[in-house]
Specification:
Dodecin subunit-like, Immunoglobulin-like, alpha+beta, 4-stranded mixed β-sheet, 11 strands, 4-stranded antiparallel β-sheet
């Protein structure tokens, strides 16, 4: 038995900060259950872009008698995303933004902004990737008690890894950024499993 319960659109909220693909996928699954379904078939995925920093999914909600045949490969979307991101990089650059788990007592959680839109809220073990379609100077910034800024000279076809830092502040951790080498940035970014 397989019955279509309806269709959903998830993640099209420009005011939402925490909307990386895992969160949006989880929201889609919760909505499917609310509609009486037990399976979603993703029909379209929109990556974060200039207009919205959120992933957006369109999906059909299904009710199937035995969904074991449809068991999700937890890495399938990430594999698909990797294929999508590596397709044609000649007209854009990749910006990887991440924060590792703090090894000190300093905790910070802050929204990372850029000239092309909000990237997302970072805290321990979070990561985001976005495409930048404009060459030239890109400003990344955030603020809690103090403002932190980083400028990157963006070139099409390149990848940039920005490590978000938690610096001591009077009340909360202050933001900080470090532009990492390609090798070190990729190594640290891939350690984060979220």
């Amino acid at each position: 038995m397989r019955k279509k319960m309806g269709s959903i659109v998830i993640g099209n909220n420009s005011t939402k900060v925490k909307c990386h693909y895992e969160t949006v996928l989880s929201d889609a699954m919760k909505k499917a259950v609310d509609m009486g379904g037990n399976l979603i078939k993703i029909t379209k995925v929109d990556s974060p872009a200039f207009i919205s920093s959120c992933y957006r999914f369109r999906a059909d909600v299904l009710l199937v008698a035995d969904n074991s045949a449809y068991a999700a490969d937890e890495t399938a979307f990430e594999k698909w995303l990797g294929v999508q991101l590596q397709a044609d990089t000649s007209h854009y650059a990749f910006l990887y933004v991440y924060m590792l788990k703090s090894s000190s007592d300093i905790y910070a959680s802050y929204v990372v902004h850029s000239d092309v839109g909000n990237i997302g809220r970072v805290s321990d073990n979070t990561k985001y990737v976005t495409k930048v379609y404009k060459e030239g100077k890109l400003k990344i910034w955030s603020f809690t008690e103090k403002k932190a800024e980083l400028y990157i000279d963006i070139k099409e076809g390149q990848s940039y890894y920005v490590k978000c830092l938690a610096k001591p502040g009077a009340v909360t951790g202050e933001p900080g950024f470090e532009l990492m080498s390609l090798e070190k940035g990729k190594e640290e970014y891939e350690k984060i499993k979220k």
